Amino acid sequence: MGRSSPFGDGNRKRIGEHFGTVEALLALGTLCARRRLRPVPGAEVRPRPEKTLGTGPLPMLAHLRAPG
Prior knowledge:
4 strands; alpha+beta
């Protein structure tokens, strides 16, 4: 699966870019506040140079955080 620039680039950026970025940060922040994320033991991450630098799949384990 290739990476893309979903909001365009330069003078023609989409107006929803700021909203999409904020929404993604809020979702990630909520997930990280409630769960502890760790890579699956033995999982190998390799860089994939495409239009933007990405990785292949990154298997993760999500453990509930202790209250408090």
